[in-house]
Amino acid sequence: MKVKILNGKLAKVLGGLGAALGLLIVLTPFHLAPVCQGLLELNTGKMVHMRCHYTGQGEIFFGIIIVLVSLIFLFNQSLPAQKSLGGVLMILGLGVIILPTNQGIGVCMSPMECHATAKVLCVLGGLTIIVGLAAVFQEKIPGSTSKNI
């Protein structure tokens, strides 16, 4: 069985775009659109971080994984592997969207600055899903079978 090899401009653009999106996801929670910096005081007097802080930490983990998967995608020339990595990017993008919602860790209940963080992360997660979809269906996109840049 012969494995189809693709090494076109589209694959390089998708890999680079995925890595850039992953880097933006890493930087968003604590630098670009920071989550709340306050602490909660428990009944015992102990101070703990709010939910949005832990959501930010989880998003950093997702972002790092997205960067790694995108770099593997960028340097891999096998079409089946690139399609699989595109599927992984779609799943990771969905995770980025779900984490700041109530189905994930969530953000603060009252409107605070972490709600802006959640919106930015939802947009970045959606763009990651689009990059993953383009990677899965790259054969169907015109001009994607071109040779090296």
From TrEMBL:
Classification via Pfam families: DUF4418
Keywords, alphabetical: Membrane, Transmembrane, Transmembrane helix
Keyword Membrane among record annotations: yes
Record has Membrane as a keyword: yes
Superkingdom as given in the UniProt entry: Bacteria
Spans through the membrane: 56-75, 87-105, 117-137
Protein name as it appears in the record: DUF4418 domain-containing protein
Organism: Desulfosporosinus youngiae DSM 17734
